């Protein structure tokens, strides 16, 4: 079902955004995104590929190739690639929900029309997949949020959201690897470190990894 | 060794950026005005990607602890080396114990200081650029503070007496957005058609101003409210510097050098790469206009800006002391002279070296 002609649009003169989304996030489409992201790096003139959530940004040098060539190559790659399942590492992330470091918890529960304890239990019950790493160093875009728990992003982003914040943005979940601006809602906090530039592998999580949140505490 | 005497935290060590790690969430970063830093380096015989200082908050002062050479480009501001005035877009020697001082710009927003040999800092993921968000690169991943000392790598060559200047035709007569609006060429982005016809018309037809929420990550603009034809909640996707996002508030944000690698807000357009320096040099309060262009025109503009690196450095051997002397005399009348000093130009090869420039001269 993922193999349908993707939408490809310009992102400036040196990048194309391939959007394979068919409505809600889809795991099979994401596996195709990972495969195409790897394969497209071999195209002449392609500099970097950036997997997003059911989409792929492809950066190229417009002085050695052009958008039309890359677009055609991406279309045939998308149609002709077999997605493969990535076996990732499993991680457990303890979360303190609510309180000063989870200030949107009550609003989230109200938005979803359920008690705080219920929403926390549901958030911690799911298994999440790291769909993509991006936005900031080591930030995981997590799929697997129960659709009932989705909450549209804030109308205007906060200029500072703390490192370790456990957050919700639309149908996506995430964890802040560093203090930075974000338009997502803050529902809790973890002490697990996701990015360490001194480490041999600076980024803890990789696409395909699985995550479970455990409840370290709930503060209404 | 140089020592920082007067600075602010927005002033950082930068180079041409950290490429190849977007899929780890690491932004390209690097100088906001990459051309200005590259040319400052080229004037000194450095690789264009050598590390220098981006000054976004003036005044800025440093002291040299060794005899070396510096090049200052970017904003048009009063500059002195010891007791000698120096025009912007000029490379000159500085002696141990002398102070380099950059005053508040009267045109433009960011100055770049390159050093003969470049700043000697450990590269992280292939770059010395400061990633303030990630807290790495540059000097301890942070902005510069008073008392910071930075080592220099060995210089590649020496400057002629009187120094050397660069004049970029593209920048002569450039506006800072205060006297008149800055024109930024844009390509439509993925969600352009999802905006109402009124929003599309207002985006192109009206003026925008840069709010004080403006930094290396991006500039928030104020102006007309841009509405989508119907609400749209997108999945997160990779973005490039220059992306113009419209959050539900309807007020656009232009993502810049330190922007997140991915975003989720609808994208109405992308400012073309060749015009990003105009934003780097636009202060808070500057007015902007978006000008739609074709992809062909956008690529041509990029080609032209690369060509400028080949063409627009005044060859060092053309810079006689007399040219500098007459320029110094005119410093007090800089505004009448136009934004940048007029100096002789000679095409040189790229990357720059003294030998190559001698051979390239007809």
From TrEMBL, chain A:
It holds the Pfam family CT_C_D. SUPFAM superfamilies: Cyclophilin-like (SSF50891), PH0987 N-terminal domain-like (SSF160467). Keywords: ATP-binding, Hydrolase, Nucleotide-binding. Gene3D superfamilies: 3.30.1360.40, Cyclophilin-like (2.40.100.10). It comes from the Bacteria. InterPro entries: CT_C_D, Cyclophilin-like_dom_sf, PxpB. Residues 6-205 form the Carboxyltransferase domain. GO terms for molecular function: ATP binding; hydrolase activity. This is Allophanate hydrolase. It comes from Mesorhizobium kowhaii. The lineage of its organism: Bacteria, Pseudomonadati, Pseudomonadota, Alphaproteobacteria, Hyphomicrobiales.
UniProtKB/TrEMBL annotation, chain B:
Pfam families: CT_A_B. Gene3D superfamilies: Cyclophilin-like. Residues 23-309 form the Carboxyltransferase domain. SUPFAM superfamilies: Cyclophilin-like. InterPro entries: CT_A_B, Cyclophilin-like_dom_sf, PxpC. The keyword Magnesium does not apply. Keywords: ATP-binding, Hydrolase, Nucleotide-binding. GO terms for molecular function: ATP binding; hydrolase activity. It comes from the Bacteria. This is Allophanate hydrolase. It comes from Mesorhizobium kowhaii.
């Amino acid at each position: 079902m993922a193999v349908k002609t993707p939408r490809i649009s310009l992102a400036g003169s040196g990048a194309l955004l391939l959007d394979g989304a068919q409505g809600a996030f889809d795991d099979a489409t994401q596996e195709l995104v990972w495969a195409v992201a790897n394969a497209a790096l071999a195209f002449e003139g392609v500099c970097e590929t950036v997997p997003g959530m059911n989409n792929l940004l492809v950066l190229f040098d417009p002085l050695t190739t052009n958008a039309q060539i890359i677009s055609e190559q991406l279309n045939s790659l998308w149609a002709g690639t077999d997605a493969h399942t990535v076996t990732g590492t499993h991680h457990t992330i303890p979360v303190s929900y609510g309180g000063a470091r989870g200030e949107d918890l009550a609003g989230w529960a109200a938005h979803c029309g359920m008690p705080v304890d219920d929403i926390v239990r549901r958030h911690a019950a799911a298994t999440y997949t790291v769909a993509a790493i991006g936005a900031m160093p080591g930030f995981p875009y997590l799929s697997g949020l129960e659709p009932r728990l989705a909450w549209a992003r804030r109308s205007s982003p906060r200029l500072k959201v703390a490192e370790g914040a456990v957050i919700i943005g639309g149908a996506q979940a995430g964890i802040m690897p560093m203090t930075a601006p974000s338009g997502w809602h803050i529902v809790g906090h973890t002490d697990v470190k996701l990015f360490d530039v001194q480490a041999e592998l600076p980024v803890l999580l990789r696409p395909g990894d699985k995550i479970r949140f455990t409840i370290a505490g709930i503060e209404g | 060794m140089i020592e920082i005497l007067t600075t602010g935290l927005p002033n950082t060590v930068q180079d041409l950026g950290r490429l190849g790690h977007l899929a780890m969430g690491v932004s390209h970063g690097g100088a906001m005005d990459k051309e200005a830093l590259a040319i400052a380096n080229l004037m000194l015989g450095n690789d264009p990607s050598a590390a220098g200082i981006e000054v976004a908050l003036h005044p800025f002062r440093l002291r040299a602890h060794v005899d070396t050479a510096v090049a200052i480009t970017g904003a048009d501001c009063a500059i002195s080396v010891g007791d000698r005035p120096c025009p912007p877009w000029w490379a000159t020697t500085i002696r141990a114990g002398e102070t380099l001082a950059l005053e508040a710009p009267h045109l433009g927003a960011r100055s770049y200081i390159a050093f003969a040999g470049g700043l000697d800092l450990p590269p992280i993921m292939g770059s010395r650029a400061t990633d303030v968000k990630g807290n790495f690169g540059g000097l301890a991943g942070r902005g510069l503070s008073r008392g910071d000392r930075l080592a220099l790598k060995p210089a590649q060559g020496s400057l002629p007496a009187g120094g050397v200047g660069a004049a970029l035709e593209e920048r002569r007569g450039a506006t800072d957005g205060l006297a008149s609006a800055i024109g930024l060429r844009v390509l439509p982005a993925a969600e352009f058609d999802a905006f109402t016809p009124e929003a599309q018309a207002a985006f192109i037809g009206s003026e925008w101003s840069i709010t004080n929420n403006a930094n290396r990550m991006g500039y928030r603009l104020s102006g007309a409210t841009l509405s989508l034809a119907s609400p749209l909640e997108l999945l997160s996707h990779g973005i490039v510097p220059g992306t113009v996002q419209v959050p539900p508030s309807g007020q656009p944000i232009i993502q810049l050098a330190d922007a997140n690698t991915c975003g989720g807000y609808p994208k109405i357009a992308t400012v073309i790469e060749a015009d990003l320096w105009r934003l780097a040099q636009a202060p808070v309060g500057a007015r902007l206009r978006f000008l739609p262009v074709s992809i062909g025109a956008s690529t041509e503009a990029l080609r032209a800006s690369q060509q400028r690196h080949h063409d627009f450095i005044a060859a060092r051997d053309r810079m006689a002391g007399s040219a500098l002397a007459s320029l110094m005399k005119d410093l007090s009348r800089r505004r009448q002279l136009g934004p940048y000093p007029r100096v002789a130009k000679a095409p040189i090869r790229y990357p720059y070296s003294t030998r190559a420039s001698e051979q390239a001269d007809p």
